[in-house]
What does this fold into?
Amino acid sequence: MAESVTPFGTTPSSGHLLASLAPLLREWLPRQRWFAGKGRQVTGFTPVATTELLPPDGRLGLYHLLLRVHQPPIPGAPPHPGDCYQLLIGVREALPPRLAPALIGHVDQGPLAGRTVYEALYDPRPADLLLEALRTRARVGGLRFERNESQEIREGLVARLMTAEQSNSSIVYGDTFILKLLRRVVPGDNPDLELPLALSRESCARVPAPTAWLRAELDAESYVLAVLQPFVTGAADGWELALSELAKGEDFVAEARALGRATAEVHTALARALPTVTLGHAQLELLVHGMTERLAAAVQAVPTLRPYERGLRSAFGALAELAAEGRTWTAQRIHGDLHLGQCLRSPSGTWSLIDFEGEPARPLAERRLPQPPVRDIAGMLRSFDYAARSASPPAPDWAHGCRAAYCSGYAEVAGRDPRTDPVLLRAYETDKAVYEVVYEARHRPDWLPVPLAAVRRLATSDPTLARETRP
It folds into this structure.
């Protein structure tokens, strides 16, 4: 299909538009689940790009904003220009009751004075406009709607916003597609598009192939803003499925083994599709240094960790010793933030992996680095532990069984059991548990005992993971 240029109206100057929106966004943004700067005042905004998708001269207006948000610096942190967020702002004279949850506020100044603005993703008409732009490969200002021409996008698919808490926002179209809109965006190749595209070239069925995507081309920089993929109808979220089995007193061993096989298939395909590297002494020194620095910062942030610091540090020291002896490891592109919530099981029982964005808090360049596959494995092992300890009462034996089965399933495909490399596995699981302690202390204090239980286990100087996780 030939590329189209959508004839939208002229956008008001970014400064004038922000004069209308800024007072409301200062209050609204910090309440959003995907806003990363919670706990710090919003002091100002800088427009990165403002695109009018529908002029507000009828019943509905629609603006696409890339907005840099300024906040006071974090003490001790390096200077930061502010996070850039993607917003879709709807404009109406008044909101119908069905859109009440989307309200941002009533504007009293600037070019939108007297109007009501709201989160447009709740509204089917703006959602339909996005899908149509992708279907027709529209270009609007710096926005580039692109698609895989081998996949059909039908017209008339009913849109609905997924309301589950997440770090981005997703719209489902007729149980056929799901559009993931990235909220906090940075310039560069986002792995949430890059890796699924690479896997599709390898015919890896474990990851839904991208159907279409949205980029912003601004000066010399390119931003990935959204990805449209097939929707797995009737799929069960891995986390919810695990909790359901726990609540019924059922084990999860068969599913964990199948999930291990799925993970290994994805890792194997990524190693074929993209370059791999060998981590020698110098690279491993940097890796261990990063782990050690994160531990030191965590101990300062959460003093509860202090009694375990020496033991946790030994996990990283053991890895450094192996590197000094000349041990090397292969690194490749990986998922980067793998846990049960990033996995879907179809009604036929097939597991898929989703959300390849990595940890959004980490720099994009870091998320795109080749890493040992065991980092993903450690994340999944921690996820089994989280599920087991969220049960009442906690079920550590359930977690042990899942961990063992997952590693066995992985070995069936990869040809190598991750438990045969206990020093590397312990180091990565320790690094993950330390991260979890800081996260829970800041955001969910009631959950803090979950990673602390792992910290107590991992703080031993004897890496017994191989014994703990074998059946």
